[in-house]
From TrEMBL:
Top-rank taxon, per record: Eukaryota
GO molecular function terms noted in the UniProt entry: zinc ion binding
A Pfam short name: Zn_ribbon_GRF
Source organism (scientific name): Paramuricea clavata (Red gorgonian)
Protein name, as recorded: DNA topoisomerase 3-alpha
Lineage: Eukaryota, Metazoa, Cnidaria, Anthozoa, Octocorallia
Amino acid sequence: MVYCERKVKKDGPNQNRMFHCCPKEDACGFFEWKQTDPCVINTGIELFSNPLQY
């Protein structure tokens, strides 16, 4: 399947979010949000695998 990758331009909560859709020539109706990688933030909190270490 051939698809285009585009970005939401309309104001709102999804602005700048990426999605996949059909090329304009095909117009098959396909739409899917592009998956984003989870964001990891260093909080400085250490997590231990052994609950007795807490």
